[in-house]
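Input record (one chain):
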Amino acid sequence: MFAALALFTCCPNISLASQQADPANRTYDAASGLLQRGLYDLALSEYDAFLEAQPEHELAPAARYGRAVCLVRLNRHEEALGDLDRLAQREDFEFAAEVAYLQGHAHVRGGRHAEAAARFGELIEQYPDHPTAPEARALRVEALFRAGNMAAASASLPEQATTPRAVFFAAMADLALERFEPAAERFARVLASDASADLADRAALLRAQSLDRAGKTQAAADAYRASIARDGAFTAPARVGLGELLERIGDAAGAVEALSPARTAEGDLGPRASLALGRLALRAGDPAAAAEDFERAQRAESFADEACLWRAKALLAGGDADSAAQTLRLGLRRDPSQNGIHRAEMTYDLGVALSRAGETEEAVRVFERFPRRFPDHALMRDAQYALALVHHAAGAYDEAESAIDRLLPIEEAGADAATPAPADIRFLAAENAFLLNDLATARVRLRDFMESHGDDPRAPVASFRLGLALHRSGDSDEAQSLLLAAAARADEDPDAAAAMTPAFTALAEIARSRQDWPAAASWYDRAAASANSADPAGALLRSGVALARAGEHAEAAERYRASIDLEPEGPHTAHARLELGRSLLRLDNLDEAEASLERVTTDDRYAAHAWRLLAELAE
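The corresponding structure, as predicted from the sequence alone:
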């Protein structure tokens, strides 16, 4: 509201009226006397009587002015404007400045702030030294602000202005113009003045917010604390502002301390505090507490979608993908016009939740629809990448390849900030081609990844995969070099050794192709001993064969026995018994050789070989 107006109740000199004894003059004198005594209703009646009887009297303009003053004092501003507008058209009216002042005030009360600013401006321009001019200047600042003319409101504040309300609204204009530091300085002037408690409380909060938006972090934090210390009507928003600031700079403990009392604040402040507290709890590794805060914030209509999105993230972090998916499904059922800002993110996170919940088909549908529904959204490529990942994880490598094709070629511009990262896309593309057994494409993509992202933690895996792809393509020399490097890393990192079984097997096959039997046996032994070996019995059998080719029949026999012990009735057992018999025969251990070979004669795959060896043994 505007400050109380110092309205003028004086009227033109009435000595002429006193000298004349006609009833009209006496009526005017009576009206003016009643006005000066504050009896506005009675004065209004007398002015009305005078003007009705003498509308063209020389004192009629003064009577209209007195009548307008009475109406303003009675808060009948619209009625007053009729008289004031007529008087404003007179060039020689003694109280023209007061008329402009009252016009501005009446327009303010009628919500016509642009007109009010214009009237105050006319007064200042035409009567700069009039007693009403200082207050008109102050009132004009507020009128311009309320009219939406922020630049003029900021610029129109006199340099030496001391009216707290005028300084306050000039600061508000600066804030609207995003001139945050000048705004903060002006709010500080309000605080240093004799402003009312309410205006000072507002200025304290707005000064803190201005400093916050200006990036003056420490000064803003101090200003928020000063606002909180006032313990006024704006303590809750100051707490929320301080808490959000401290959250941004990583002072989690301070943020929680500031925000916790604001959880129950009225309006949007409580949900804002709960959202911030939820984010803090999530970062602190307490997804259950975070989910509770987000659920509390979700009850507020204006925060329902943002809180829904965060609550789902908390549920996912807590391992409850099913509940996260259900939360997002319910959120997306709301009117799209109400959650347009967060709808794309909610849809994307729904796909993530569904994939983690094992609902692969529905996750695929969500991610497939995303580019059509949100083609220009920042998460569009993330959704395409997630679709490729879901297909890849499900073993649907052809479908994954189709999704990968939409992600390639990779644009490197702005790659550091891009999601998904080019390295992620390249690695997935290479891995998918490898698992599709498209060795030519896999080799190209793996080399591309290694050349572009040699420092990536996955580069050793890519090198290992490239070695396997080259081996399977028949390029043994380069394959051996890469696979030996992978094996060396396994020696240094026992955790990595378990994943290297294919490298050990490939190195064994390369050595065998070169008839380097001791090396082949050694690599087969490592493959058999690997923690995640898919076929240790087969590896032991092949190690034994390599040792036998090297003439090491005693060691070969040990490998065959170990293979049989590992799988007494497995797919390699008959072959292991056959080779065991062969080596025992060479070692002249004829009885054991015969016993081993006879157990093979019932196996159609190896029976003929066993009978030939038995015949040799009989000779």
